[in-house]
Specification:
By secondary structure, the protein is mainly α. It has a single domain, classed as Hydantoin permease, CATH 1.10.4160. 77% of the residues lie in helices and 0% in strands. The protein has 17 helices and no strands. The protein has helices spanning 10-21, 24-36, 40-68, 72-81, 88-122, 131-136, 145-159, 163-190, 196-203, 213-226, 235-238, 247-275, 285-297, 301-335, 339-358, 361-401, 412-434. α2 (24-36) packs antiparallel against α10, α10 (213-226) packs across α16 (361-401) and α16 runs antiparallel to α17. The longest helix has 41 residues, at 361-401. The chain starts with 9 loop residues before the first helix and ends with a helix. The chain binds tryptophan. The site of tryptophan has 17 residues, from α1, α2, α5, α10 and α14.
Length: 437
């Protein structure tokens, strides 16, 4: 058997994990939810969930992957095989399928972004007079299919080269550029006249939101999605780790980079939105309609709109490749196909199965909600039950601590076993009971 591909350096792994984490969840969902669920009041449950549960979940997924030397299908299979049961692979297929569902809609949005990168050079989105009209002719229309195809081809062009030579190499270039662009954009946004109102909107808490269960549900869903926890998302990265990699420290760094990116994204978008007196709770059209409108009248807007859409594209593609890897590894493991063949088939299937979503916006939105609010958090919960209960929290901790400079102590056992699993189950039930979406 060929030796399993590995991340070549810890920094390459952390940048790749941050690349997977920093994406549309940060740029699109976070600023909007922050505004919608009480500003700084939302930050409280969010930071709590992402640091305590996010880090715990990530350590679990990385550890499970490294222990199994496989993605979710193979690793879940191995856990149950040791107990003499044979349906583990079948269970592991659930989070892989959910992650594939994320890939389907992510490729569509990345396609829109690609279109906007090109349009940002010429300002094509202003031609018809209204950006809303431009977006309306793209999203939910057959015109978006070519862009969806290009997005999938871009991801394919990276994933086909594997981990060290593909995903890791790409992220080592993408992430430093992305961080630089973010900082430039924040400086532009917060120095606009009237930007203060946007900063206040983010930072002034409306505590009454903490009394509403939906705030907590949204904060948890956001925390899981943004660090790429789906029960499979980071298992696959774990399977490419060396024994010497420090999992707890890496998970913490990944969460910190992701949180920083989310806050920077909010600081790019909200001050600008307020400086121009626009609607901050506009939701999804924020990136594709509101922001271009802002660049239209902003000083140096031509320049900053190009930087803005390039940065979003980089954030999206570095996440897209991580999802694609989840599915590709699953396919390679299940069918024993070569990487090139698996990547091609996954990209092609994702294009075809994504078509019904690409050409109908209401179907698209319903699908995104179904996956991100219900199915993905359920997957992350499943993974935790698997690792912390079935595999056993002591075994899990032993695996997580291999290579750790500061090993996690036994205090962590109840955090993982009861707190993580308990809260995750509670929130999944709450979401269903309240029927948010
Ligand atoms: N974290 C990414 C974002 O915030 C999305 C993402 C990438 C993801 N890979 C994943 C989500 C795997 C779940 C599973 O946009």
């Amino acid at each position: 058997m060929k030796k399993r591909d590995k991340f070549s350096t810890t920094i390459g792994f952390i940048l790749s994990a941050a690349g997977a984490a920093i994406g549309l969840g940060n740029l699109w969902m976070f600023p909007w939810r922050l505004g919608q669920y009480g500003g700084a009041a939302f930050l409280l449950p969010y930071l709590f969930f992402v640091y305590i549960l996010g880090t715990t979940g990530l350590m679990g997924e990385f550890g499970l992957g490294r222990w199994g030397q496989k993605g979710a299908i193979g690793a879940y299979g191995k856990v149950l095989r040791e107990k003499g049961k044979h349906f583990g692979r079948f269970i592991g297929a659930y989070p892989v399928t959910v992650t594939w569902g994320i890939l389907l809609f992510y490729a569509i949005v990345t396609g829109w972004i690609l279109n906007y990168v090109i349009a940002s050079f010429s300002g094509a989105f202003y031609e018809s007079g209204e950006v809303g009209a431009y977006f309306g002719q793209l999203a939910g229309q057959p015109a978006s299919i070519i862009w969806q195809t290009l997005a999938l081809l871009s991801a394919l062009g990276i994933v086909i080269f594997g981990i060290a030579g593909g995903i890791e190499r790409a992220n080592k270039v993408i992430m430093p550029i992305l961080i630089g662009l973010f900082i430039l954009l924040v400086i532009r946004s917060v120095t606009l006249p009237g930007a203060m109102a946007g900063i206040e909107y983010i930072l002034v808490p409306d505590w009454s939101y903490l009394l509403q269960p939906i705030t907590w549900g949204m904060a948890l869903g956001q925390a899981f999605f943004t660090v790429s926890l789906s029960g499979a998302g980071m298992v696959v990265f774990g399977s490419y780790l060396k024994d010497s990699t420090d999992i707890p420290a890496s998970a913490l760094k990944m969460v910190t980079l992701d949180t920083a990116a989310a806050l920077l994204a909010a600081l790019i978008i909200m001050p600008a939105v307020f400086a121009y007196g626009l609607d901050p709770a506009a939701g999804p059209p924020l990136l594709f309609i509101t922001m271009p409108e802002i660049f239209r009248s902003m000083p140096l807007g031509e320049f900053f709109r190009v930087l803005f859409f390039i940065s979003i594209f980089l954030a999206a593609i570095s996440s897209l490749i991580s999802m694609m890897e989840v599915v590709v590894e699953g396919v390679m493991d299940q069918f024993k196909w070569a990487r090139a063949k698996s990547v091609t088939i996954v990209a092609l299937t994702s294009l075809v199965c994504g078509l019904p979503l690409a050409i109908d916006m209401s179907r698209f939105t319903a699908f995104v909600d179904l996956i991100t609010i219900y199915l993905a958090p359920a997957g992350a919960t499943l993974a935790a039950i698997f690792f912390f209960w079935i595999f056993g929290v002591d075994n899990a901790r032993k695996e997580i601590n291999r290579g750790a400079e500061k090993p996690v102590g036994s205090w962590w056992n109840p955090v993982a076993k009861y707190f993580f699993v308990g809260v995750a189950i509670l929130i999944v039930i709450l979401q269903i009971a309240y029927g948010v979406g």
